[in-house]
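Entry 14. Structure prediction run on the chain below.
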Amino acid sequence: MTYALICLPFLAATAAVTALSARRPHFGPRMAASAAAAVLLLALTAVFDNAMIAAGLFTYPETHLLGLKIGRAPIEDFAYPLCAAFAVPAVFVLLPERRRA
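Output returned:
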C-alpha cells in the first residue's frame, strides 16, 4: 500500500466533516482561519520534515511514494497537517454544546 492511499481516508473524512459543518454559524471566517492555520502548519511541516529527513531520523521507501517532494519531504507528509487544520475546527463546532455546571 502506498502512503497516498493511506492518506485518502483522512482527506475524505476531513472533507466530509468540513462539509457537515458548513451549516454551522461563522463557516466563512472559520474556513479563513483554517486556511491560515493550514499555511502555517504546511510551512512548519516543510521545514521540520526536511530537517528530520536530512538528519537521518527516518526515511521513506521510494516504492511507496508518489515521487513528488518538497525538498526531501514527500508530498504525502503534507496531508496530515492539512487535515488537522480543517477537521479539528469542524469537529469542534459539530460537537454538542456542553452546559456549564
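The radius of gyration is 16 Å.
Filed with the rest of this week's runs.
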